[in-house]
Design brief:
Blueprint lengths: L7 H22 L2 H21 L1 H14 L7 E4 L2 E4 H15 L13 H23 L4 H8 L8 H4 L6 H33 L5 H9 L3 E5 L5 E5 L3 H10 L17 H14 L2 H20 L5 H27 L12 H10 L5 H19 L11 E4 L3 H4 L6 E4 L5 H30 L3 H16 L9 H12 L3 H6 L1
Helix pairs in contact: 1-2, 1-8, 2-3, 2-4, 3-4, 3-8, 5-6, 5-17, 8-10, 8-11, 8-13, 10-11, 10-18, 11-13, 12-18, 15-17, 17-18, 18-19
Length: 491
């Protein structure tokens, strides 16, 4: 069994770099010339470091992905176009990969043949969606911005490069995931504290930075508290899936891995602060899947299950305490008259049927269903719009009175059915099933974690689209390479 134990040194270095990146993004956001200077410098450094070693480029691209939300922590304005740092980093590493001709050094050892076939089928489905959208007259801009996220699937070629040294890259990637979970947790907790203490009116620049860089959204809820949601908080949850198995049987907690409790706790805190029911649903199903996999595949018995229960409850208690501390800072306990973490969680669950987002999704479901029925097999192509009645307060206050037309749909699998039909959707489902089956056959914490993460992400995609976004695609590509790393070494 391949043993890729991450080092605390790599974790600390990555954590420090990611924190510096957050501060630099915030400062440069307020100074356009600095933002563009940092943008160009990052691209230059990425090109040089990737040219020296492809592993460096992979780490840079994935580090931005794990914490960058929609990818605009830095951006470059060219006329009316605004380039995100994500797309330019991606293109830079792909360009170096092509120039270095890494793909000519051998076949694809990183991808099991069956998984590779399904990825190619997804590529064909996306290609069809582009052609169909253009033929339907949806417009070049609408088609491009609707389809461009799927370009991230091309990163599989880089991750499958035969020149990669996975014995070095593997542990670093796990340390990077741990660092990202840590930073996401810290950022979520600090943001919650700041907004509870100072309110949005006192944090105008900070709030605009979060909104305009595509990192996420902050919204008041009840009792003077706020919901702090970042798209990248999904990696707090997916990070748990990958990291936690190192502490479960047959692994043992040792001094060399005990530090993993830090990113695990902070990653879970990010999920709690997000108040995302999609995350909670995905996490609940993922935990259930982990128990089933442990009992059936790894033959867990009562002692192992007891350890899992103790670790899970302990981590949840620590994450809950941190969330409560953020709400009542500097006191780690609720003040009289202040909402507790329990109040907020209960309120979020209790309003599941009447809250604006839930109502909007219900209306969207009713609007999408008849559209899909009219062209179920091949869809309408990218850029297809649907009009429905939204319950989003911002839409209700607009001139349309909440009537909203969009080509981006919250119901992930329905979005895919609209764009490239059941044929393309079957390709995606086939990829997920085959990937999960391959991970099931492998042994060890790495395969276990990525299997649970794949299941978790597939559930989240039901109500919050991630598999049609680089955030979700990137994780699946890691599952298909790093998660199956034993295949890499035996090919």
């Amino acid at each position: 069994m391949t043993n890729f134990i991450p080092s605390v040194r790599a974790y600390l270095i990555f954590t420090a770099l990611l924190i510096v990146n957050e501060f630099l993004s915030f400062v440069s956001y307020q100074t356009p010339w600095l933002n563009q200077s940092v943008f160009m410098l990052l691209i230059l450094l990425t090109f040089i470091m990737t040219w020296r070693k492809l592993e460096h480029g992979i780490l840079i691209v994935l580090a931005e992905l794990f914490v960058g939300g929609k990818g605009y922590l830095y951006s470059l304005t060219l006329g009316h176009a605004r380039l995100s740092i994500r797309i330019v980093l991606f293109v830079t590493v792909m360009l170096v990969w092509l120039l270095r001709r890494s793909y000519r050094q051998g076949s694809w050892p990183g991808i099991v043949l069956a998984v590779r076939k399904w990825i190619l089928l997804i590529g064909l489905a996306v290609g069809w969606g582009v052609v169909a959208g253009l033929m339907a007259g949806h417009g070049w801009a609408a088609v491009f911005f609707d389809a461009n996220a799927y370009l991230y699937f091309a990163f599989i070629f880089v991750l499958a490069s035969p020149s990669l040294n996975w014995r070095q890259l593997g542990p670093r990637l796990i340390a990077l995931i741990a660092a990202a979970a840590t930073v996401l947790g810290l950022k979520s907790l600090v943001s919650l504290t700041l907004f509870v203490k100072l309110q949005i009116a006192g944090l105008t620049t900070f709030y605009r930075w979060i909104r305009e860089t595509g990192v996420g959204e902050v919204a008041p809820i009840f009792g003077g508290t706020y919901r702090v949601f970042f798209q990248s908080q999904v990696y707090g949850l997916l990070g748990l899936s990958v990291i936690v198995p190192w502490l479960f049987p047959p692994n043992r907690v040792a001094k060399s891995t005990a530090w993993l409790f830090i990113p695990i706790t902070l990653g879970l805190a990010a999920v709690l602060v997000s108040l995302s029911r999609s995350f909670w649903l995905g996490g609940g199903v993922g935990l259930l899947a982990a128990l089933i996999i442990g009992i059936v595949r790894y033959r867990w018995r009562l002692p192992e299950l007891a350890k899992v229960a103790v670790v899970s409850l302990g981590v949840f208690a620590m994450a809950y305490t941190l969330t409560s501390w953020a709400l009542n800072f500097p006191y780690p306990f609720p003040l009289p008259g202040r909402p507790t973490g329990t109040n907020i969680l209960n309120q979020r669950i209790a309003t599941i049927g009447g809250e604006a987002a839930a109502k909007s999704r219900a209306e969207l479901f009713r609007a999408l269903l008849p559209v899909i029925k009219r062209r179920p097999w091949f869809g309408y192509g990218f850029g297809k719009t649907v009009t429905y009645q939204s319950s989003d307060p911002r839409q209700l206050q607009s001139a349309s009175g909440g009537v909203y037309t969009t080509y981006a749909f919250e119901l992930g699998y329905f979005d895919m059915a609209i764009k490239f039909g059941f044929i393309g959707l079957i390709s995606l489902m086939g990829f997920l099933v085959v990937l999960a089956a391959r991970l099931w056959r492998k042994e060890g914490a790495l395969a276990f974690g990525f299997l649970v993460g794949t299941i978790t992400l597939s559930v989240i995609h039901l109500t919050t689209p991630y598999i049609n976004h680089p955030l979700g695609i990137g994780f699946l590509l890691l599952a298909a390479t790093l998660g199956l790393v034993q295949t890499l070494e035996k090919a």
